[in-house]
Every structure is written in C-alpha cells, then in structure tokens.
Design a protein that fits this description.
This protein is mainly α. The protein has 5 helices and no strands. It has helices at about 10-25, 25-50, 60-65, 70-80, 85-95. Helix 1 packs across helix 2 (about 25-50), helix 2 (about 25-50) runs antiparallel to helix 3 (about 60-65) and helix 3 crosses helix 4. The longest helix is centred in the middle third of the chain and has 26 residues, at about 25-50. The radius of gyration is 19 Å and the shape is elongated.
Length: about 100
C-alpha cells in the first residue's frame, strides 16, 4: 500500500475528525473510506457521462462504473439520461 500526504484546511480537517469519531475509525481508515467512496462516485459519473456522449456502450459503462448493467440502468433512470443513440432511436421509432 502506498502513502499519500495531504495538507487539509481547518474546516475539512475538523469534518474528517468528526466523521472518524462518528464512524469509530482512526484518521487513516476514515480517509481511505472517504476516498474509496469518492472514487466510486467519480467512476459512476464518468461512465454515465461517456454513455450519454455515445463514447461507450451500456455494458461498457457498467464495466467502467464497476456495477451491474441493472445498477447502471437505475443510475441512468435517476439521472434522467438518454442512453439510446439517435440512430438506434430512429430505427426503433421507424419500426413502430
């Protein structure tokens, strides 16, 4: 495991201390837990953005977000994002 040294302004440091105390964690464990949660959020946001922009397929977005396709479907629904491209959508409408 690598080491990272970070200087925090007073306000976030106080919040970190409060979080660690509430979660019954030492400072290092609290930082690791929060970092993991932040990276999870970042992966999900990035995957949904790439899906919206047509850069990845739905299943690839699920892989990037480290989620199941069902979880990504729920995220897309919550974000009110369109994941069907124009070509696919037009083909589907034409088939009606």
């Amino acid at each position: 495991m690598g080491n990272v040294s970070v200087r925090l302004p007073e306000a976030p440091e106080a919040e970190l201390e409060a979080y660690a105390e509430e979660e019954h964690l030492d400072r290092g464990a609290a930082v690791r837990k929060l970092l993991a949660a932040g990276l999870d959020d970042w992966r999900r946001e990035r995957a949904i953005e790439q899906l919206r922009d047509g850069e990845v397929t739905f299943s690839r977005a699920a892989d990037l977000a480290d989620l199941t396709v069902w979880d990504v479907a729920q995220l897309v629904r919550e974000e009110d994002e369109t994941w069907v491209g124009e070509v696919e959508g037009e083909a589907d409408i034409g088939a009606l």
